[in-house]
Amino acid sequence: MRQKARALMPKAVQLSAYGGLEQLKIVDVAKPVPQAGEVVVRVVAAGTNPGEISIREGFLKAMYSMEFPFGQGSDFAGRVDSVGSGVTEFAPGDDVIGWSDQRSAQAEYVLIGAAQLIAKPPALDWFRAGSLKVVATTAVAAVRAVALKPGDTVAIVGAAGGVGSLAVQLARRTGARVIGIASNESAPFLRSVGVEPLAYGDGLAERLRAAAPNGLAAFIDLFGGGYVELAATLGVAPARINTIIDFAGAKKVGAKTDGGTAVPTRESLASVADAIAWGEIVMPLTAIYPFTMVHDAYTELARRKAHGKIVLALDPALKAPLRPAQSSGLP
């Protein structure tokens, strides 16, 4: 009888110590019960983000102070299971997109404040919905930070990653000319969304000068590794350089460091979700892994070669492919 009860307990990713992939374990947890203002969501899909690797390895202790054991993941989408008193915006059975500030999204059930949810557009698939919050709000913030206007030329580093693939399209919607710095393999995608691809590597400064002989109006760094200083040497005004990762470089040249917390979360998330649902922008997916293969998902994420998002599927009924085609045309 005890074994049967244990088998029915919800599962969640937890860490008991900082470290490598060996610290990621799927464990039994009690099903949460909502209190006033809270909602329990049965998770259908959950996203992965590079920052979670740094959190797991202990490099962001000062920013994300947590007591062990704690979970992992911010992005998720699912169906409302139950609501606490005072919750009127959502009801059991509603399809929602949300985020967890408690790093608990990679679990079968998530307990969350109602203010950390929005309604999922019916036309938006579960995989994109479940991996959207971090990249959507970060992309919106990064583009807003450099105040693009029609006729501007902006260079975006990491242009085909999870954040970059959205940021280049949001930048294009301002009327700016967008140069996307990424691998050669990502060039077809960038061209398909109206972005001019430029390869990483030696001679990038010269290639940028040739591509934009009148200079760059703005520069967005989504990758790190000296690109902020490169932008400064190319003559971009510090107020129009934004990085989400190179804080030391930003401090050195006076650039901005606006990320997802710099914009209204629900508003930004809803606007991007609607744009994807209506086909106004596309959101590439690299791979979809079953929840039980969380180690494999983070192994691929750590390579930093993903074109788009890597997603965990928690609903077996979705029958998610392990290695879907690397394109924006997934279901």
Report mean pLDDT, rounded to a whole number: 91
Shape: globular
Q: Kindly provide the radius of gyration, computed on alpha-carbon positions and rounded to a whole number of angstroms.
A: 20 Å
CATH architecture of the largest domain: Alpha-Beta Complex
CATH fold description of the largest domain: Quinone Oxidoreductase, Chain A, domain 1
Q: What is the helical fraction, as a range of percent?
A: 25-40%
Largest sheet: 7 strands, mixed
Query: Number of domains in the coordinates?
Result: 2
Describe this structure in words.
With 331 residues, the protein is an alpha/beta fold. The protein has two domains: 2-132 and 284-318, Alpha-Beta Complex (Quinone Oxidoreductase, Chain A, domain 1); 135-261, Rossmann fold (3-Layer(aba) Sandwich). Helix content is 27%, strand content 22%. The chain is built from eleven helices and 14 strands. The chain has helices spanning 2-7, 50-56, 126-130, 133-145, 164-172, 187-192, 204-211, 227-233, 247-253, 265-277, 294-302; strands spanning 11-14, 25-28, 38-47, 75-83, 95-99, 109-113, 117-119, 153-157, 177-182, 196-199, 218-221, 241-243, 285-290, 309-313. Strands 3, 4, 5, 6, 7, 13 and 14 form a seven-stranded mixed sheet that branches. Strands 10-9-8-11-12 form a five-stranded parallel sheet, with helices on both faces. Strands 1-2 form a two-stranded antiparallel sheet. Helix 5 (164-172) links the parallel strand 8 (153-157) and strand 9.
